[in-house]
Write a structure and sequence with these properties.
The complex is a heterodimer. Helix content of chain A is about 75%, strand content about 0%. By secondary structure, chain A is mostly helical. The model of chain B has no long low-confidence stretch (mean pLDDT about 90). Chain B has helices spanning about 5-25, 30-55, 60-90. The longest helix of chain B has about 30 residues, at about 60-90. The chains are: A mainly alpha, B mainly alpha.
């Protein structure tokens, strides 16, 4: 039973990943990515890491995909189709990716993994204790560093996305980029 | 661990996902599509951490922690990238890689 579910998930994930890197419509490609990420959460559920699956669903499906959809809607016209790379470049990249995949698989299958048979389940409490423990093998320092990183990226995103002031933006010419860049530098100096 | 599924099959799946991501990263010409490919690559590596933890060292939890950190860093990175893309669109009205010639505004 679990075998069938895994193969089904694997099929969905690979098909959706290929669709999301080859679709020419922006929004569709994001939605394909969403299904791929849900497939990853399904794999986490299958190996009994329920907390990780929940994190995957909330952060990726609920946060990152919505953020990407926002940016697509802000910068794109719905009917616009993306231009694709040249055929020769596509074939060359595909070939080199296949060669890389072959190298990966040969190394993997020639290595003998010592698999430990187990049916352990991990509770959320264990994960929390491990993250906050000071002992050897505890992850309290990376945990705090990650919180600082998230704060810094939040402030950085606000500062970058705010850009120049709105009243100056109206005056900017819609001509070539160079004059607009000079304009924004001038407004910066005034500020 | 998953009954009837060996570690090789799962590692094969994640390698395929990783190289699909690499393919998209190289061939796409749009900044948002490159971001999407990046998410695929990050996800494949996070699954690898968890799988190796579960199959080889089930009494430890290190792989789970690393995978949580990968997810957190990916979220931070996506937020910043979206901010940069929107700002870039305001400056040059385009998100194609080829039109992106200046980084300083």
């Amino acid at each position: 039973m679990e075998q069938i579910i895994f193969y089904l998930l694997a099929l969905i994930m690979i098909v959706m990943a290929i669709a999301s890197v080859s679709s020419r419509k922006m929004l569709r490609s994001v939605v394909y990515l969403l299904f791929g990420l849900i497939g990853v959460a399904g794999v986490y559920f299958l190996i009994d890491y329920n907390f990780l699956a929940a994190v995957q669903l909330t952060v990726y499906a609920g946060g990152i995909v919505v953020l990407i959809i926002f940016s697509v809607l802000l910068v794109h016209h719905m009917e616009m189709e993306m231009e694709t790379a040249k055929k020769s470049k596509q074939i060359l990249t595909g070939l080199s990716c296949l060669i890389g995949l072959g190298v990966f698989l040969t190394i993997m299958y020639s290595h003998e993994f010592t698999v430990v048979e187990n049916t352990l389940t991990t509770t959320t409490a264990e994960i929390g204790m491990g993250l906050l423990s000071y002992d050897a093998g505890g992850f309290i320092l990376p945990f705090e560093v990650i919180s600082v990183l998230l704060l810094a990226s939040m402030i950085g995103a606000i500062v970058i996305a705010k850009g120049v002031k709105l009243e100056n933006e109206g005056k900017e010419t819609v001509g070539n980029p160079q004059t607009r860049i000079e304009n924004s530098q001038e407004t910066e100096d005034e500020n | 661990m998953i009954a009837g599924i060996s570690i090789y099959e799962i590692l094969t799946l994640t390698s395929i996902l990783f190289f699909i991501g690499v393919y998209g990263f190289i061939t796409r010409k749009n900044l948002i599509s490159i971001l999407i490919s990046l998410e695929l690559i990050l996800n494949a590596s996070a699954v690898n951490f968890v799988i190796i933890n579960k199959y080889l060292f089930p009494e430890n939890l290190q792989g789970v922690f690393f995978s949580i950190f990968i997810i957190a860093v990916a979220a931070a990175e996506t937020a910043l990238a979206v901010a940069i893309i929107i700002n870039l669109y305001r400056q040059i009205s385009s998100v194609e890689v080829e039109d992106t010639e200046v980084m300083k505004y």
